Amino acid sequence: MSTPDTLPRWALGSLYPSVTAPEIDADLAAAKALAEVFAARYQGAVASLAPDALAEALVSYEVLLDRVYRPQMYASLASSVDTFDDATRSLQARCGESATATMNLVRFLDVELAAAPEDVVAAWRAAPALARYTHFLDRARLFAPHTLDRRVEGALATKDLTGRRAWSQLYNELTAGFTFPFEVRGETRDRTLSEVRGLRMDADRDVRARAQSAVLERFERESPVIAYIINTLYQDHRLENELRGYAEPVGPTLLDDELPRATLDALMTAVEDHYPVAQEYFRLKARALGLDRLATHDVLAPYPEGERSVPWSDARAEVLRAFRALDPSLGDIAEAFFTEGRIDAEPRHGKRDGAYCSGMVPGLAPRVMLNYNGRLSDVSTLAHELGHGVHFALAGHRQSLLNYWPTTPMAETASVFGEMCLTRNLLEAERDPAVRRQLLAARIEDALGTVHRQVCFTRYELNAHARRAAGIVPAQELCALWSREAERFYGDAVERSPRDAWGWAGIPHLIHYRFYCYSYAFGQLLVFALYRQWERDGAAFVPRYVELLGSGGRDAPAAMLARVGIDVTDPDFWRRGLEVVTGMVEDFRALV
Ligand SMILES: [Zn+2]
Fold it and tell me: FRET partner for 64 with CA separation of 20 to 30 A, picked from 37, 116, 313, 536?
């Protein structure tokens, strides 16, 4: 047992005894056997199934997916905290290959659903037996115009193992190995990427400047490899888009998110029009810190009197208090992550950078990984990931596998709401104006980081993909594209150094998840709107919120949100969300 302030490592023993356990191979084999039975029974016959028979088939399909996912998820969890262990690496590769081979056996389902005649689909959609699979069927049809022949789909998935997935993994392995001999207040030792990044929030300006410079210098040095990875992945994406007949690089993402391009454009334009408010905040921050002008390494600087280190036990208590303030049952769900050993918080060599929550499958409790360095922002990260955890737990309670995962635009709802609840609670308990200013600043900076900066990333990503269509993009050109968005965002409020241009090389999301960043902005602004509803309606809001989270991925986002009174096609919706940021910046001005 760990003492309260020992940073926990998670226990994965309830999934499998170890990375070499024979149970894993038994499950991989069982999944394959289920897939063979499923294929023997349904292949070539899907369009002829009556609604009851299709419902039965989908239930078996969920059972088989569950078997496929469990070993894969275990391998991915184990690998994220021990990227250099050979047995774990080999397990991850074996699980990936086996899952792909198994899924290839049942890929016909998507293809046949997509190709089913309209009148058959209409009968399915009208049948009570298939009521809970309506959105799944809609989604299967959604990709119909872009789905290829089954053999081609299988070949593409197989080639992805040594293609895009291998390139992504190369980036992880490259950056997980970064160590920095770094001196802080007389102590020099090797630090991980995550630790040095944490020092960009140090109170000492020199430490911040050196930490930022060390990280960017390292990415600059590795940029030939990283630019090659990016050029390969972007070209891979473009070629596959051509095969599938998508009109633009962001096409598959928007289709998957079930949002029209107009929603993305309205969101991005509203946020870009709001950059001057961000710049106003940066000027106020410079004044509060006694600087003429902020530099990029000051953007995350703490306010001297508000700086504090948060022990793990306090982080746990604060986050649980915040969740309980919204609803005690949500606090209980979050607390189980701690008591059941489902959090890995300790930073260590070989562990992946960043943080995530793995939703697993319904019936299998989600897990949270983060690198806790004791800063207020780490406490927010904990609230964020536990928000995901609560979302998964509620959806896991109410939905079966095919309706379980929230669609991407909704994926950040509970996580960001968790952060808002945390800040609200901390602000309520705090009387010291200096600390209140600090807390408000943290919230504003989170909003700027989650909304404005993610829109910057997305604009860069759109431009970089467009540029890649014209040929290889040299690293220097990626720098130029990156700097252009930084210039728009920071204006003359923040001084930039030439080395800042290498920032693109250090953003894992731009490697692993295409066009994912805008969903952070979507999620945050959505949460501001929901948060206003909570402030207005109090306890009456909670059942609506729980209903929204418990819906998982059962409906398209617009339909789920319409039920809680939100219209995502209304441009004012985004402006209302941004007004919350403007209001916070005005409150902050009064405290400077
Ligand atoms: Zn998240």
Answer: 116
